């Protein structure tokens, strides 16, 4: 059984939906989209933290307008009891402030927080649409001293995750890897969003695979259970599952490998990054 986390989008109606459907104590990460701005991420994160969730806001470097704004965000984290952030560059074409990349922002956070803030970073098992593989790897090698773990982009292939982890280790990146898995999201929504974030080709590949594709994407929603079970069977499984819910919270996986969305600390914060009792032995 894997340790698990849920990712949500800070839409207006999401806090009551989470309160209704997700047990307090669950780890929830809150995205930071260019059209929303970081305030919405922080407002939602603080509200959920106040209701007893272990919350991880995403901070996009290019969406932060000033060092003062960052200091305010860190103060808000302190007030809400938030001790971990997910730091990315951000999909904004141009930076609106002093930080160009996740690395820039991580250095400033480490300094302002006296290195007490835990930070996750993004990994791309199938590459990134506009950043070369070599540059992504170099960026991870640099960031690993500031980070606690990697969360992968949404992926649909266990062997791709396995190969990605092997390449990371070969190239000297030692951080625990959490596999990004799509939740039970309606198939049309999933196809649209996967295309938008640059992983559409792998999803289209699956949908074009006849019987297997029908199993994976048949019915109205994607079903992640088989993929999660296959990840658990890898010789070296990932440290945990990061479930991209896209706010579809109606059928969170409770069986088939993920285990119940649990209410305890998931262990991603510590170096080593796994809740040993929750992860199958290699
Ligand atoms: N909002 C979210 O939750 C997530 C967002 N993303 C998006 O993925 C992208 C990358 O983010 P990070 O992994 O944090 O990378 P990053 O912004 O830290 O960049 C990694 C490396 O690539 C370079 N780089 C960045 N953008 C580039 C570009 N357009 N062309 C060439 N080189 C570039 C940077 O200088 C750095 O060396 C961003 O667009 C980010 O918003 C990825 C995962 C999650
Ligand atoms: N390049 C990239 N950007 C991201 O923001 C991102 C990734 N990759 N990879 C993993 C997750 C997935 N992300 C996403 C992507 C799209 C929506 C989304 O629902 N977009 C809605 C608009 C939501 C709104 O404005 O209220 C859409 O309809 O496109 C949410 C999270 C965030 N993360």
From TrEMBL:
One cellular component term from this protein's GO annotations in UniProt: cytosol
Reactions mediated catalytically: (6S)-5-methyl-5,6,7,8-tetrahydrofolate + NAD(+) = (6R)-5,10-methylene-5,6,7,8-tetrahydrofolate + NADH + H(+)
Biological pathway: One-carbon metabolism; tetrahydrofolate interconversion
Example of a GO MF term: methylenetetrahydrofolate reductase (NADH) activity
Keyword Flavoprotein set for record: yes
Cofactor or coenzyme needed: FAD
Region annotation (Disordered) ranges: 257-282
InterPro entries with a match to the protein in the record: FAD-linked_oxidoreductase-like, Mehydrof_redctse-like
Gene3D superfamilies: 3.20.20.220
Keywords: FAD, Flavoprotein, Oxidoreductase
Any one Gene Ontology BP term: methionine biosynthetic process
Entry's family note: Belongs to the methylenetetrahydrofolate reductase family.
Protein name as catalogued: Methylenetetrahydrofolate reductase
Organism: Arthrobacter glacialis
